[in-house]
Amino acid sequence: MSDTIFIAIDPGVNGGICWRVAGKTTAMRMPPTDFDTANLLVDLSKKAPIATIYIELPPLFAGKNIPGSAIGKLMLNYGVCYGAAVASGMKIHPVRPPMWQKAHPVGTKGEQTTTQWKNKLKARACELFPDLPVTLATADALLILDAGLRGAIN
Fold first, then answer.
1. Is residue 19 classed as helix, strand or coil in its secondary structure?
2. Which residues contact 113 (CB under 8 A, 6 or more apart)?
3. What are the E-state strand segments in the chain?
């Protein structure tokens, strides 16, 4: 058993979760239900005596390009993940998107479409995790994990 498990979560509507324990990284889409999400985090917390979680914070302002339904789901997922992490005794690192994105040499979204930006982030995650099947759902979580493991955030 490893001493620490590191978990990273992109709690968005199409988000993902990944973890590293004993040198092995695993990534998946966010589980389909709140119950599944909480159970997964509880199970992961039992894989090592120390659990550290990096979780992306929801934006402070939604803006006109993000529908309220997406923000609602993001906030709900964040709350479920945060609550499960607290209940499991994890060390929690909430992370704003600009902080973890700054840790990767991909620039900023700028004038790119969301699709172009997400594909750029996915390409970076593929570079860092060539042995994993990186998807658009798991790319942000993997980049958050990488930034956390390198000490580039919190």
1. strand
2. none
3. 4-10, 16-21, 24-29, 50-56, 91-95
Maximum CA extent, the chain: 47
What domains appear along the chain, each with residue ranges and CATH number?
A: 4-149 (3.30.420.10)
**Is the pTM value of this prediction over 0.90?**
yes
* CA-closest candidate to residue 75, choices 15, 121, 152: 15
pLDDT, tens digit, 9 for 90 and up, residues 49-82: 999 999 999 877 666 667 677 777 788 899 999 9
Q: Which of 119, 151, 127, 147 is nearest to 18 (CA)?
A: 147
Neighbours of 60 (CB within 10 A): 6
Q: Give me the amino acid identity at 59.
A: P
Query: What is the side-by-side strand order in the sheet with 16-21?
Result: 24-29, 16-21, 4-10, 50-56, 91-95
DSSP state at residue 152 = -
Query: What does the alpha-carbon distance between residue 70 and residue 72 come to, in Å, rounded to a whole number?
Result: 5
